[in-house]
Amino acid sequence: MRVRGPKLLGAVGVALIVLLAGACGGEEQGGLEGASPGPDARVGGEIDQLILLYDNIVVDADVSVVDPDGTELSAVARLDSDIRVIVELGEELNTPGVHFVQHAVDAVDGDREEGSYSFTFDPSAPAPGLVFPPEDDGSPWLLWIVAVAGVLVIAVLGWQLLQSMAKARARSTPKQQR
Hints:
The chain is α+β, with helices and mostly antiparallel strands.
């Protein structure tokens, strides 16, 4: 008696789990979760600091802020909590236009996360609030493709298994003679 079908089905199941785990694990870990002023924000008011929130425990941070003229502003980054970095500016923002923020943090797990974003300073705009950048969903379409392919493979293998079991049952059943 051959037991190839169940073994093959099990192997395909394990392969699908490994593929799905690999696809899920591809999402970015660590990184900027929120900021004030945030990415692409238009802000005004008296801005003498930036707040950066991360989704990983931060042990060190380097942040630079560049004004629209290309001048790097005096800025000191300090850890305010495990996930929050306060960037104290040497003076309040006073040059209208697009400002660029480059940030790099060392996480407790040894990863170094680097990124950048820009915001626009417009003295007539409202004061900044905490902005959460849109999350990168990774590749959800890849998960759907793998899931649909897995269901189809399991369905086909299940059908073949049922067919072979029916044939085996038919062969092992004694034939009645007339």
